[in-house]
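Quick note —
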Amino acid sequence: MLTAYAAPALMAGTAGVVTGQQDLAMAACTSIAGTSAVVAFLVGSWLRRGGQPRRWTTTMPRVALTAALVITAAGAAALLGWFTAQWLPAHSPIPATPWLERLRIDLPVSAALATTIVTLRWRSTTTASPA
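Predicted structure written out below.
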């Protein structure tokens, strides 16, 4: 999980510093890296399921499994980003700010990348059991 946090934080943070985008540099260590770490943990835990992978996850084609999980994780993250950016300022003392609006992009992109990497790495370590 440390890698799932550190890699996006370093890459996005470096890009933010090099291009002079302070908001990207700040988001790199918060919403981008945090989302990546949480999603990597959740997807990895779900795939392992106590050491016994679900049969369909090992027999389904690698690309199809990855696509299904990416769509699910990115969709959930997009809904969370939208909900947070819209609902939070309207129902709490937290004002609408540019960093809050960034969540609409940061969360689903980070979730999609983390899910893709975790799923492909996990799948490369498992072997499909014969039917």
